[in-house]
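User: Could you go from structure to sequence for me? I need the amino acid at each position, not a summary. Structure tokens:
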């Protein structure tokens, strides 16, 4: 039985006229007539609507060899949000934009102490500013850049707030979307690996200027410049990692793979509670130590150490959960 015959049969079984079906589908009666006479074939979105309206599976409508009516299990899916092709594309596009903005915000946080590191050193070398002015400008710029980063995080977060339901397991993709997402994911694979590799290498090599400066016993000014270069290299590396990581995460989220598998999501929720306490403490230690010692060129070491410790805590937590 072909699609046209199935639409005709299902319409009659429900006791609807062509006009009534057309009204329910928000199309003209002529469209329904063409579907039933095989003069036209409804597009995939219309087929999905027909399957939902008649309470049958899309396989039954699309496969000519299925003669017996196959009804969908509406009890299991009636509470699920159906994600259409346009919603999927909207989510992927917005998530990519969100990732770029978040990456810029993180860059601002990493780069925020640069002037506080450089200006006092230049002042002590007798260049341009007084020491008080150097510290004042450096602290003001640090607070300004962190404030700008926080604003970016808040604003970019609100722009994807309406996709919050995709973080849970209460949605289903419309017919054919899984294949489309997997194709996009596969096409993105090379870009993901390349950018992750570059980002990690930049973070590893960021300490190289300071090592070289130490070997050649460079002066204090050069140490400060190399520290600033370290922060720049780290910020670029982290930017690349966050951007591609967010895009890959959006594919995983729709496919419920990786960290978005139901079991992994439960673990992530518990780890996020730990992070909510851990990172404010790390920030307080960094700021307190930095203001107390005025050694901003060294106290940045808090962040890589804190990151490694948190990674260890997370790994231990996941191991205990198994």
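Assistant: Here is the amino acid at each position, in order:
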């Amino acid at each position: 039985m072909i699609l046209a015959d199935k639409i005709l049969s299902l319409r009659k079984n429900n006791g609807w006229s062509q006009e009534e079906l057309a009204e329910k589908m928000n199309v003209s009666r002529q469209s329904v007539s063409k579907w039933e006479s095989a003069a036209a074939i409804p597009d995939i979105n219309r087929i999905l609507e027909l399957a939902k309206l008649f309470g049958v599976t899309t396989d039954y409508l699309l496969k000519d060899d299925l003669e017996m009516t196959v009804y969908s299990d509406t009890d299991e899916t009636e509470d699920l949000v159906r994600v259409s092709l346009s919603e999927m594309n909207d989510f992927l596009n917005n998530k990519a934009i969100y990732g770029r903005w978040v990456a810029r915000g993180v860059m601002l946080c990493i780069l925020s102490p640069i002037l506080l590191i450089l200006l006092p050193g230049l002042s002590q070398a007798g260049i341009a500013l007084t020491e008080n002015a150097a510290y004042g400008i450096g602290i003001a710029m640090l607070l300004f850049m962190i404030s700008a980063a926080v604003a970016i995080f808040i604003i970019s977060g609100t722009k994807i707030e309406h996709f919050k339901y995709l973080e849970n397991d209460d949605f289903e993709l419309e017919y054919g979307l899984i294949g489309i997402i997997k194709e996009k994911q596969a096409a993105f694979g090379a870009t993901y690996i390349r950018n992750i590799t570059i980002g990690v290498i930049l973070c590893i090599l960021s300490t190289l200027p300071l090592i070289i400066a130490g070997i050649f016993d460079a002066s204090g000014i050069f140490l400060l410049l190399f520290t600033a270069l370290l922060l720049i290299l780290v910020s670029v590396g982290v930017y690349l990692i966050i951007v591609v990581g967010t895009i890959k995460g959006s594919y995983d989220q729709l496919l419920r793979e990786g960290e978005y598998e139901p079991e992994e999501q439960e673990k992530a929720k518990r780890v996020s509670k730990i992070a909510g306490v851990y990172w404010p403490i790390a920030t307080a230690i960094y700021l307190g130590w930095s203001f107390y010692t005025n050694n901003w060129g060294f106290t940045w070491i808090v962040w890589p150490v804190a990151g490694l410790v948190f990674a260890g805590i997370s790994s231990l937590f996941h191991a205990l959960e198994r």
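One structural detail worth keeping in mind: The first helix runs from residue 3 to 13.
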